[in-house]
């Protein structure tokens, strides 16, 4: 070590115009810098790297009931796309429906709430706190409470509607193939809109007062002030919030799994609930579940790229795009 | 264009009085500067006129129409802001077109007016650029253009030059003045820089503590400040102000500083000082102090503190009693620190204020004195 050190010290500095030193040489030369990030890298390797590699590995095997590993090549990938029991295309459709629907309505509702709460009125703080509740409640608690409220036979909602005479019989929501997705999306929007509200409330507070004043003098009414000053200013925040929600919703599991388990008849099954089912429920098919995960990982990687681009866009310091 | 009147304009925030019954008349085509230190209420006054904040009491008239209760967009006033407030997502053309679009003007006419305005301000080549691609001076011009394009009844300007560097500020000052003279526009202009006010405005309104201290032409304000605040605020270097006791004597009298120095007063000035409570504040501009190298009758002994040659003239800071005062001398005047000198205040240009009320003690029937010639320093 000491020898290597002294060599590094006496080694001539690379002359300009010469080939730049290789990656390994750079790491050796700047080893202290790398040592600082080493613990973080080690943790990442253990909790992300190892599962990632082992999942990719597993996706090329089938594990028999006796626990034996049998190499199957790309069989698992083929089965995912063709096997009717996996139902990949139907589930992908569900997931997109769920993700786009939840993201869109949560954004609209959250934006509306942020705008309303941006104006001063008595009790604003209290209203803001109340609207935040869905976001801070745990997913599990929310799922169980909503399952009870929406239950087809003795749900609070159905019961109340019948009792008030609005309906003749309790509505079938979570147990109907047609109604289950809109119902779940509604619950998810309820859970997620406060996040949008918070992000946009923060954004609204940075809209330059001077620009709004200039717009008022220039003859803009409330709508035009919003359209020409506020909205352009919030474009970045809206984009990032929407992307963040989009990715979160693509990865949704808890709410749907606890409320319907993906049923009835896979009508509300999403990517992640289906992977979980394949891996851990009934007769587990780990290889198949792993292949599914790998496909999903690649899709997420693509989305992650767009997310990072959106985050750094228009900011030359970060040198993206 | 139209004149403007503020009548007893009053604005409070909770218990704080921001603007305290300010009244002033702006004639059609007049350039009026609202000047005062930070927090004096000048910007609040401007925002009240613009309608961006609500009046607590009083009236604002544009022409002969009360505009108190009108929305800013219905007041037909244009405003230029300190930080320009250009719409960052719109290019220069759309920034200029915005107020016209908001008024529902036809596309062809918008185009014609924007291009004409751009020509006047020579920003034609910049029409496709976004504000962030413009220099400070160019942004300033676009902001002015956005006000100009509407052809409003009057212009409100909120420290429009204070974000520019010193050199550009002087240049834009001249441009603004020229623009006003060509258009004969009614302008209400807020600034904390008394030099801007003095050089550009037809009339100056000096404010302090929410109260209008004095309203008049730059000459009036400079020659006949009504109180010690105005006297000390307008002019650069500031007017020398020093407290002294008035002592009556045959053929006039004199003022005596607390450290014992005595300066004689002419009969006229003695009469003015005689109306005080006994203590006066003597005010004298640097250009009206004469410096001698040896004692003479009617002079006061002082010591040089430091000498500042500026090229055109030399400022002589000197100690009179415990106080530092300033005089201006010829460019070639030189003296060492602590050199003894004898100073004389020009009796015709002596300002006297009552030390208790801080109000000016004017010569009786002295209106004619306003015509006296003066050297406007620094400009």
From TrEMBL, chain A:
The lineage of its organism: Bacteria, Pseudomonadati, Thermomicrobiota, Thermomicrobia, Thermomicrobiales. Pfam families: BPD_transp_1. It is found in: Cell membrane. GO terms for cellular component: plasma membrane. PROSITE patterns: ABC_TM1. Keywords: Cell membrane, Membrane, Transmembrane, Transmembrane helix, Transport. Residues 92-307 form the ABC transmembrane type-1 domain. It comes from uncultured Thermomicrobiales bacterium. It is a multi-pass membrane protein. GO terms for biological process: transmembrane transport. Belongs to the binding-protein-dependent transport system permease family. This is Maltose/maltodextrin ABC transporter, permease protein MalF. The chain crosses the membrane at residues 34-53, 96-117, 129-149, 193-215, 236-258, 288-308. InterPro entries: MetI-like (IPR000515), MetI-like_sf (IPR035906), UgpAE/MalFG_permease (IPR050809).
């Amino acid at each position: 070590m000491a020898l290597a050190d002294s060599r590094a010290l006496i080694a001539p500095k690379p002359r300009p115009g010469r080939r730049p030193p290789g990656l390994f040489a750079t790491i050796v030369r700047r080893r202290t810098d790398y040592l600082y990030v080493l613990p973080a890298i080690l943790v990442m390797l253990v909790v992300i790297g190892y599962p990632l590699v082992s999942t990719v590995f597993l996706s090329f095997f089938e594990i028999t009931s006796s626990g034996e590993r049998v190499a199957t090549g790309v069989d698992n990938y083929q089965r995912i796309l063709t096997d009717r029991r996996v139902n990949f295309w139907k589930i992908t459709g569900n997931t997109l429906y769920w993700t786009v629907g939840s993201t869109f309505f949560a954004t609209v509702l959250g934006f509306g709430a942020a705008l309303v709460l941006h104006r001063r009125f008595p009790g604003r703080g209290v209203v803001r706190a109340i609207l935040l509740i869905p976001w801070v409640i745990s997913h599990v608690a929310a799922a169980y409470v909503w399952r009870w409220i929406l239950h087809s036979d003795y749900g609070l909602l159905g019961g109340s509607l019948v009792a008030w005479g609005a309906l003749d019989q309790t509505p079938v929501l979570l147990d109907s193939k047609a109604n289950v997705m809109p119902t779940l999306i509604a619950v998810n929007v309820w859970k997620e809109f406060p996040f949008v509200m918070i992000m946009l409330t923060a954004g609204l507070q940075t809209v330059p007062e001077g620009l709004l004043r200039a717009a008022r003098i220039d003859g803009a009414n409330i709508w035009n002030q919003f359209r020409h000053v506020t909205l352009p200013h919030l474009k970045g925040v809206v984009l990032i919030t929407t992307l963040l929600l989009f990715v979160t919703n693509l990865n949704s599991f808890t709410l749907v799994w606890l409320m319907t388990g993906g049923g009835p008849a896979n009508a509300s099954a999403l990517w992640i609930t289906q992977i979980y089912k394949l891996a851990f429920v009934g007769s587990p098919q780990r290889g198949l579940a792993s292949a599914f995960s790998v496909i999903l990982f690649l899709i997420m990687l693509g989305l992650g790229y767009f997310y990072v681009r959106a985050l750094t866009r228009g900011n030359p310091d970060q040198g993206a795009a | 264009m139209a004149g403007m009147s503020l009548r007893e304009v009053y604005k409070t925030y909770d218990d704080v009085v921001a603007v305290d019954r300010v009244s002033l008349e702006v004639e059609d085509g007049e350039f009026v500067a609202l000047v005062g230190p930070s927090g004096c209420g000048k910007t609040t006054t401007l925002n009240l006129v613009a309608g961006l904040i609500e009046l607590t009491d009083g009236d604002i008239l544009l022409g002969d129409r009360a505009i108190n209760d009108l929305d800013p967009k219905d007041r037909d006033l244009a405003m230029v802001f300190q930080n320009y407030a250009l719409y960052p997502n719109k290019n220069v053309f759309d920034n200029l077109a915005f107020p016209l679009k908001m008024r529902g003007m036809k596309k062809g006419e918008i185009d014609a007016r924007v291009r004409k305005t751009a020509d006047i301000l020579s920003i034609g080549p910049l029409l496709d650029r976004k504000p962030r691609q413009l220099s400070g001076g160019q942004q300033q011009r676009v902001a002015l253009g956005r006000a100009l394009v509407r052809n409003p009844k009057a212009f409100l300007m909120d420290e429009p030059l204070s974000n520019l560097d010193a050199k550009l500020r002087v240049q834009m000052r001249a441009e603004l003045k020229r623009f006003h003279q060509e258009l004969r526009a009614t302008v209400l202009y807020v600034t904390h820089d008394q030099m801007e006010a003095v050089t550009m405005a037809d009339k100056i309104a000096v404010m302090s503590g929410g109260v209008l201290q004095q309203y008049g032409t730059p000459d009036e304000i400079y020659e006949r400040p009504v109180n010690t605040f105005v006297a000390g605020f307008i002019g650069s270097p500031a007017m020398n102000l020093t407290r002294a006791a008035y002592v009556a004597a045959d053929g006039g009298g004199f003022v005596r500083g607390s450290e014992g120095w005595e300066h004689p007063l002419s009969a006229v000035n003695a009469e003015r000082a005689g109306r005080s409570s006994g203590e006066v504040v003597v005010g004298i501009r640097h250009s009206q102090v004469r410096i001698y190298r040896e004692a003479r009758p009617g002079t006061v002994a002082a010591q040089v503190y430091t000498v500042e040659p500026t090229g055109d003239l030399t400022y002589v800071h000197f100690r009179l009693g415990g106080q530092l005062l300033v005089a201006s001398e010829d460019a070639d005047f030189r003296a060492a620190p602590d050199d003894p000198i004898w100073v004389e205040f020009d009796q015709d240009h002596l300002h006297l204020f009552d030390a208790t009320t801080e109000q000016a003690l004017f010569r009786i029937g002295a209106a004619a004195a306003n015509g006296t010639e003066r050297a406007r320093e620094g400009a």
